[in-house]
């Protein structure tokens, strides 16, 4: 779980960086060129398959870990002080992860599937054809309920990352009294900045659609 989690954290950095093309005011040209590169470049395709495997592996291992924990202690403690002994996020990682997974399925169906197999309009830049994924994204985020869904989902992603980031390093035994505080701090910053950037994209496109 730690290895797949850390890989997916790296993926999030790349994904949010690429999607920043949505903020460029060029009628989607930069984003469409980026989208085509991400779906046609052989190296990126291989990396995509690794990402799919990492997502599946992360989910499978989380289920295995949860079942193993329940099997190890089929009867709960008579007196529990979980709220004082652990953070809320650490006790609810399964719930947070499930919500993020549901969102991911919705996200993939709405954009990833459409990019690969949907009937997207086509635009031309310098005589070369590109699928106009930008128009689909822009149309989708003109709907306030969908924007709200994405923003709420990013809140849950942030909560999941706030514990998962540092926990991954701890599980791998990368603890050190000198470096662990820095890792925890970096995890907290990451869990705010990256989801906030993702959430800002639908908000920006929605505001743009009002003009």
Itemize the secondary structure elements and their pairings.
Layout: H1 2-19, H2 29-40, H3 42-72, H4 82-85, H5 88-91, H6 93-117, E1 122-125, E2 128-131, H7 133-140, H8 144-171, H9 180-210
Antiparallel strand pairs: 1-2
Give a short overview:
This protein has 211 residues and is mainly alpha-helical. It has helices at residues 2-19, 29-40, 42-72, 82-85, 88-91, 93-117, 133-140, 144-171, 180-210; strands at 122-125, 128-131.
Structure description:
With 211 residues, this protein is mainly α. It has a single domain, classed as 3 helical TM bundles of succinate and fumarate reductases (Up-down Bundle), CATH 1.20.1300.10. 76% of the residues lie in helices and 4% in strands. The protein contains 9 helices and 2 strands. The chain has helices at residues 2-19, 29-40, 42-72, 82-85, 88-91, 93-117, 133-140, 144-171, 180-210; strands spanning 122-125, 128-131. Strands 1-2 form a two-stranded antiparallel sheet. A hairpin with a 2-residue loop joins strand 1 (122-125) and strand 2 (128-131). Helix 1 packs across helix 3 and helix 6 crosses helix 8. The radius of gyration is 20 Å and the shape is elongated. The mean pLDDT is 91.
